[in-house]
């Protein structure tokens, strides 16, 4: 039987451009060997997650999430709790498309994004778990992380990333540190901070230098705690981010790798942001699920240091080759050339 793929797409993402390319996109996955069908998400809560879960249970080999990071997050939430998880592909059509940026998938051409599957290259991606929810790119807490809740979805679609920048400029002067209690691998921070991030990729809010040494599959979050709320200092830190990721050595920053984080509020409410949406309030425990979902990606364009699995595969291949050579029978005099 032919393999089956289900395209789960958000018909309102990317100014509704996906619908225009839908037939051609389906043709690409047919060319890749998949019998492909499509499902348009609806306003019903968890529409994408429920459809992804249903298809996985029905034995589909590939789930394609087409839309913004929110649609991808929903599809992952539909798959992550299953023992058998199909492969995933993504077609970005949102505002910032951080996940597609990290996987080096074209962000301005849905058909070109679909054609990444034809390269047959995948990465076994880490994902995060926060309570009973899952996230693909970032979890965060603190005042600035409330930014995305206040940007209307229609404004995001019309003005794109500029809508976030405008809201951020409005919010930044009001940032003040709050008391946090954060336990992580080998460390414990209890004190004031304006925000903390747990990043799974190097692309956060459109910035690729916020986590300059991110790995996609090492089983570790990159944790950033911003201890200052001073406006001038915050602007200075952003300058360091843009100047090659030099913020990681600043004394106002804690920058560590960790598999697990337990976040607790101290006096004030601590709201949690999961992939740009409200994910509940702390206390909350975050765990990194190593290499949990296999994603199609353009691995030729991803920096070697961002994927540890490829290094392991090379090492295993080298060991197998050496072992095979060692097991070859020794050459006799008859075998030697004259």
Folded structure, characterized:
By secondary structure, the protein is α+β, with helices and mostly antiparallel strands. It has 2 domains: 3-120, Rossmann fold, CATH 3.40.50.10330; 135-290, Tumour Suppressor Smad4. The protein is built from 9 helices and 16 strands. The strands form 3 sheets. The chain has a 6-stranded antiparallel β-sheet with strand order 6-5-16-13-8-9, with helices on one face. Strands 12-11-10-7-14-15 form a 6-stranded antiparallel β-sheet, with no helix packed on it. Strand 5 and strand 6 form a beta hairpin. Helix 2 (47-57) crosses helix 3 (69-79). Residues 154-167 and 310-319 have low confidence and may be disordered.
Name the features.
six-stranded antiparallel β-sheet, alpha+beta, Rossmann fold, Tumour Suppressor Smad4
Briefly note the CATH topology name of the largest domain. Answer: Tumour Suppressor Smad4
Average residue pLDDT: 83
Computed over alpha carbons, the radius of gyration is: 22 Å
State the order of secondary-structure elements, H for helix, E for strand.
EHEHEHEHHEEEHHEEEEHEEEEEH
Tell me the overall shape: globular
**Level-1 CATH class name of the largest domain:** Mainly Beta
Helical segment tally? 9
What is the terminal-to-terminal distance? 54 Å
- Tally of strands: 16
Low-confidence stretches: 154-167, 310-319
Strand arrangement, major sheet = 6-5-16-13-8-9
* Percent of residues in β-strands: 25-35%
Structurally, the number of domains stands at 2
CATH architecture of the largest domain: Sandwich
Approximate helicity band: 25-40%
Characterize the main sheet: 6 strands, antiparallel
* Structure class: alpha+beta
